[in-house]
Each structure stands twice: as structure tokens, then as C-alpha cells.
Amino acid sequence: DTLGELEARVSVCRACPRLVAWREDVARDKRASFADQPYWGRPIAGWGAEDPRVLIVGLAPAANGGNRTGRIFTGDRSGDWLFASLHRVGLATQPTSVHAGDGQRLLDARMVAAVRCAPPLNKPTTAERDTCAPWLDAELALVADSVRTVVALGSFGWSAALAAFRRLGWEVPRPAPRFGHGAEAVIGSPGHEVALLGCYHPSQQNTFTGKLTEPMIDEVLGRAAAAARI
Ligand code: SF4
């Protein structure tokens, strides 16, 4: 597979009945609210550089964000926060990510979701996470060689990244390192050591309450950006 072929294959995946029903129900119900735009309502592929130095691992698309626009972290509040920070640290060309044709580009970075369909309440089940894991594995296998830093957004992304890299054959410390904001673990292999950085997820739950502030997210993404430029 190339990344393009992988993207085409994942976009028609229907392996999780609950998530297929949800993504399509939301698309049907909400399409009228966004009548001037196409509404995606399908799985979300990874997006960004094909040979990324920074890999950002999120949870799953938002019902009216990625599920609507067809691009990860695009058109939702979490994405507003994430892209503003990526722009401040030099990893995105624009401070906003509004729709798939807005000209936004990631610089040396790629984003992937651990689960590729929008789940109700942003909570995939363990079975859904495991069913979707082969898509994450396939994408990592295509892009991992160039990666220097992995940024996991939230504990779900952290665990999913550790598990996926272990399946890829990378050395991952045991017991598994614990997630925290600013946590860092080294994974990879001799000669290709990669820093895994933890960052609180830029969900409204975290940004509205002040659990995640702009200086906090800039600090972690800035570390990733600095490592990418070495
Ligand atoms: Fe397929 Fe993943 Fe969507 Fe499940 S969550 S239907 S495995 S793309």
C-alpha cells in the first residue's frame, strides 16, 4: 500500500457497526446545518507530511469536526486549539483548520487518530479500538522511519501509540510508561530512538477548565518542533 491506497481503503471501512451507524446518523441529522458544504460521515485517514518528523496521535474524529470535514482535527474546537499551537511553534502554515480546502499544511508533521470513526461521547469501546488498530499499524508502518517525536494527545492516544509501536516491533519500555502532560518516554530501536511526549488532549473539557493552557500545549509541541529541526 501507499498512503493514498491506504486512505482509499480506510475511507470505506464498515467494521464497527455502532460507529458506522453513529457517523452516518450524525451526517444525516446535521447535514442540513451545514447545507453549503459536503458532509463526510466516513472514516478519517491520517493527514500531513508523508515523511513526518513529528507524529501526533489523537483519539478519534469529532462528530461535527473531522466526521464533517473529512480531515482530522478540522472544523472543531479541539482542532482550533491544536492548530493555533502548531502554527505558533512552526509546525503548521496557518493558525486555523476550517475545511479540507483551506490551504492549511502541516510542516514536518502528520496527524493520525487511534480510532478512525467518530464515536458517541468521544468514547470508543475497547473492541472498537482493537478493531481499528490495524489501520493505525498500517499507517505507522508507512511513515515511522522518518519520525523523531511522537506526541500523544491524552492517555488514550498514549496507550494506543505505545501498543502500535510495540506491534511494529519497536522497543517500548516495560512496564509501560505512564501518561501525563509533559511526560516523556524513549521508544524505538538503537540508532532510531524516538521521544514519545504526552500532552493533555485539547478537548473543550480540558481547555474550558484551564487544565490545558496555551503555554502548556505550546511547551510540548515546541519540544517536538525543536527536535524536528535538529
Ligand atoms: Fe473501520 Fe476503524 Fe471506523 Fe471501525 S473505527 S469502522 S475499524 S475505520
TrEMBL record:
The keyword Acetylation does not apply. GO terms for biological process: base-excision repair. Signal peptide: none annotated. The keyword DNA-binding does not apply. Keywords: 4Fe-4S, DNA damage, DNA repair, Hydrolase, Iron, Iron-sulfur, Metal-binding. It comes from the Bacteria. Residues 45-221 form the Uracil-DNA glycosylase-like domain. GO terms for molecular function: 4 iron, 4 sulfur cluster binding; DNA-deoxyinosine glycosylase activity; metal ion binding; uracil DNA N-glycosylase activity. Belongs to the uracil-DNA glycosylase (UDG) superfamily. Type 5 (UDGb) family. This is Type-5 uracil-DNA glycosylase. It comes from Nocardioides panaciterrulae.
